[in-house]
Amino acid sequence: MYHIQLMALARFTSVTSMAIRNASTLCAIVNKSCEFNASSQFMKNYDFKQGIHTSSTMNKYNVVISDSIPHNTYFTKFRHFFKYHCFLKYIYRARGSLLYTYACDHLDYVGIMKDFKMPDTYFSWFLITELHVWMLMVRLAAGGDAGIDMRKSLVSAMWKDVDVRKRKLGNVRGKEIAKQMQELGYQFNAAIIGYDEGLNGNDQALAGAIWRTILEMKCDDPELVEKMIIYIRKNIQTLDNVSVMSLINSTKVTWIDHRTC
Description:
This protein is an all-alpha fold.
């Protein structure tokens, strides 16, 4: 009888200890769940784009933490760097090539050469192309990193087009093509500097850049120079009325008809 009582007491003790352990485990699970819910609420109240909390207090400590976390953290900088250089940069480069193709396909080269009394030559084509590429470069300069990459891709696409057209002119040796491409590169850099100076200055400075560059110092008609100034100013204004991101995303541009200037 005594032995049976001891066995019953041992079984009761075992069941009780198991219940206590289960209760402890349940409490631990509940505590973890509460902490997780608090963390989830914290994550909901945190704006990762702005780096600040949208709630003025934390539920657990009841401490004001608004604007307590800086925006430029190492994590946000690394995330932006990784996202841009591994993904977005190549998209903007592709869009730069598309922008060049669309912009040049919608240019009236023959009409511009005829109205401005330019000879129908390969060099005249290049002068017209570099003028419109420069106007796109001016607008993309306000596009930040995306604009910089698109400008590089835009100019790179232009030089590829120049090289392809140069080789189609006839049987020209490689050394001569390389020399001519180098001369065109010097001319392009000088033209960009002249156009920038004229755009930031007055019409007199822009007229000088036009006369020296696209008209090759052979134009004696001041009305043609004035007409080209109006054409450039109107196109620059049209591009300024379009947001940079719209230009980057659409890769399409509409040029003013030179006959209306």
